[in-house]
Amino acid sequence: MSDTTTTAAPLVVEVKDLTAGYLPGVNILNSCSLTAAKGELIGIIGPNGAGKSTLLKAIFGQVKIRGGHIMLNGDEITGLAANKLVAKGVGFVPQNNNVFPSLSIEENLQMGLYQNPKIYAERLEFVTGIFAELGKRLKQRAGSLSGGERQMVAMSRALMMDPAVLLLDEPSAGLSPVRQDEAFIRVSEINQAGVTTIMVEQNARRCLQICDRGYVLDQGRDAYEGPGRDLLNDPKVISLYLGTLGEDAA
Amino acid sequence: MSSNAIPRTGAPVKSTGLHKGEIAPGVAKVDPIIVAHGVTRTFGGLKAVDVDHVEIPRNAITALIGPNGAGKTTFFNLLTGFDKPNTGTWSFNGRSLSGVPAYKVARLGLVRTFQLTKALGLLTVLENMKLGASGQKGENFFLSLIPGLWRGQEEAFEARALDLLARFKLDAKSEDYAASLSGGQRKLLEMARALMSEPTLVMLDEPMAGVNPALTQSLLEHILDLKTQGMTVLFVEHDMQMVMHIADWVIVMAEGRVVAEGPPSTVMKDPAVIDAYLGAHIDVDLGVVTGRVKGETDPGITAEEITAEGIAEEEALEENKGKKEANK
Q1: How far is it, in rounded angstroms, from Cα A77 to Cα A74?
Q2: Tens of pLDDT along A218-229?
Q3: Looking at CA atoms only, how far is residue B211 from chain A in angstroms?
């Protein structure tokens, strides 16, 4: 899980020269590449409209792919439907509308593994091991939860299928400072429990502090890649993406 | 790409001397643009907003902060006529706004943005912008028949729109449908559109959520510019660095009430605010806390403690809901 082991572990996700977009003739991703080795926590940062969310959606089969390949544990998964991808071990947590508000927490979690309900008890144990407070409130309606709590439910639901890789789209968005830090710690804990994780974040500093490797996306391409700590201190990345506000305040 | 580079700027000049007398929640301002008194709003058993008295200083940048569920957005909705309070009065520029519908509030010069963006997807970015301008001659049926009467104004609007789009780094997208913008770009479009009407007071609901940090920094310069141009800005934000950087005054809400206010440097050190909202670990390196990185210094807080704070915030929210329902 540390920076030095990244080359030795087998690749779980390999995105090669991916080109994708929504409107005809407009590519959001332009030959974008990314890898995630087993057990790695990958952070993706970059300017608005760089294609960060689109990259996650493309891996999860929500965007039409126009070129390139996506491999999961060595198998090609390019263009597969979302339900097939879930069965193969891709877990995705979208940024908004990521819980079923009229269902209870328990039902939300059950929805996460409707393809394999037999493992419910075992997975519930894993999930409540990380999110202990959810275990105490299983009957509560998800719609009555605050933004922070919903994010935890959405992450838990994605974890129910025991995914090979977990894709998170801005897990800290819209949370108060305390709950943002909590969210990053949860993501780190999930990863430390062995789940390969790819996270898109706007809170670039926090993201790079905890991730093993980071990618900076710009105009649909992977512009920079490196260990999180290196990117955090790279003057070019600071001036282009991180900004220097923190230093002003200090 | 290099066009995104931003110069390192020093700390901006803060407006001071905004209040009269000793600083306390509800303190009177020297020149208030908004005065709200006894404003409450109840949803079922939950009192979402319960503001005794608050004044927003004119020609200054005021930040409204507080935990999730503190009532910040609801208070925004009440001030701008998007929601009606159960009790209370509030005025803008000395004119009472009780019962004034949202579109009239906007015409009076009080314009807002939304936390979840509301762009018109099937209009182009430029068309979205032009819609934001007020006092359009072409809206009159008879005037609209004679293009000569409104063409000049239309061109002026377009020039203004393109200028704003350039500032918000959306100029390359001006002919694209708004639906094709990313989440962060929609946020920027909404802010730019709000400025089209040349408002007196701009209210921004989490303007920088989802906007990348480097662009945030250059946008902050524009927000500071608004103040130089004589506008007043009130914004809700969770990004404390942004609040510290540009706010002249900070109002802290919790459980619907104003619990603290003052200049940012004072408020951020207020133990009650740190306890209720900020947490004591804003400068802590999470890589060290989670044990992923061996730091030279002990961060002084553990991952368990931060998690516990988050859970406590949630439970306080829950308990508050429960209490209010029981009191009903």
Answers
A1: 9
A2: 889 998 999 998
A3: 6
Q: Which among A49, A182, A240 has the least Cβ separation from residue B214?
A: A240
Q: What are the phi and psi torsion angles at B148 (to 5°)?
A: -55, -30
Place of tokens 């030959």: A31
pLDDT band at B323 (very low <50, low <70, confident <90, very high): low
- Report A:101-140 residues touching B (Cβ under 8 A): 133
Query: What does the pLDDT read at residue A120?
Result: 93
> Could B215 and A48 be called an inter-chain contact, meaning their C-beta atoms sit closer than 8 Å?
yes
Nearest Cα of chain B lies from the Cα of A162 at a distance, in angstroms, of 23
The answer to whether A23 faces chain B, any CB pair under 8 Å, is yes
Q: Which residues contact B161 (CB under 8 A, 6 or more apart)?
A: B126, B129, B130, B132, B133, B174, B192, B196
Per-residue pLDDT at A144? 81
A181 and B306 within 8 Å at the Cβ level: the answer is: yes
Reported as a single tens digit per residue, the pLDDT across A160-198 is 999 999 999 999 987 888 888 999 999 999 999 999 999
Rg, C-alpha atoms of chain A: 18
Q: Which of A202, A210, A249 sits opposite B287 (nearest CB)?
A: A210
Model confidence band, residue B328 (pLDDT cutoffs 50, 70, 90): very low
ipTM: 0.77
Q: What is this structure's pTM?
A: 0.73
Mutant choice from B173, B292, B296, B320 vs A, greatest count of A C-beta within 10 A? B292
How many other CB atoms are there within 10 angstroms of residue A235's CB atom?
A: 8
DSSP code of B258? E
What's the confidence (pLDDT) of residue B223?
87
Q: Look up tokens 């961060």; give the residue.
A: B299
Q: Which pLDDT band, with edges at 50, 70 and 90, does A14 fall under?
A: very high
* Res A250: pLDDT: 32
CB A32 within 8 A of CB A58: no
Alpha-carbon gap: A56 to the closest alpha carbon of chain B (Å): 13
Query: CB B307 to CB A148 under 8 A?
Result: no
> Tens digits of per-residue pLDDT, B171-186?
888 888 888 888 778 8
Chain A residues in contact with B10 (beta carbon < 8 A): 248
Q: Which amino acid is at B101?
A: P
| Residue where the block lists tokens 């493309």 | A58
Residues linked to residue A90 through DSSP beta bridges, in sequence order: A165
Task: Give the largest CA-CA distance in chain A.
Answer: 54
d(CA A80, CA B214): 35
* The dihedral formed by the CA atoms of B83, B86, B68 and B72, expressed in degrees to the nearest 10: 60
